[in-house]
Amino acid sequence: MGSLSSESFDQFLESLKQAGVEISNECELRERLAEAQRWRFAFATLAANGRPLGIRFQDSSHGVNEADIHRTFARFQFPEILQTTFAASLRVEH
Fold first, then answer.
1. In a domain, 1, yes or no
2. Which of 15, 39, 47, 71 could form a disulfide with 9 if both were Cys (CB 3.0 to 4.6 A apart)?
C-alpha cells in the first residue's frame, strides 16, 4: 500500500473552498485538524459529526463543483465512499 499524500489539511480545505464548499466554524475545524495525528480520519469524523461544534459544510452561494470535490478527495487519498457521502451531504443541506 502506498504512502498517504504529504499535503496538508490547509491545502485540502483550500481546495474544497475553491470547489465551492462553504465551511462554518472553520477556525474550530482547523484547530482540531492541527491537533490530530491523522488529520484525514479527524476530518471524516468532523464532517459527519461536527454539527454540535458548529462545524458544517454546505454549498456556497456560487454552487459547488462536484467534479472538483471528487478530484480533491482523490488527490488527498480519501476513500471513495467518503467522497460520495460528502458530496451527497452538500446537496441535502439548506
1. no
2. 39
Has residue 47 been placed in a domain?
yes
Q: CA-to-CA distance for 28 and 18, rounded, in angstroms? A: 20
Pairing mode, if any, of strands 56-59 and 21-24?
antiparallel
Q: What's the chain look like in SS3?
A: CCCCCCCCHHHHHHHHHHCCEEEECHHHHHHHHHHCCCHHHHHHHHHHHCHHHCCEEEECCCCCCHHHHHHHHHHCCCCHHHHHHHHHHHHHCC
What is the number of residues in the chain? 94
Q: Say yes or no to pLDDT of 45 above 90.
A: yes
Domain membership of residue 18 as a residue range: 9-92
To which residue does cell 500500500 refer? 1
pLDDT for 5 equals 52
The answer to whether residue 3 sits within a structural domain is no
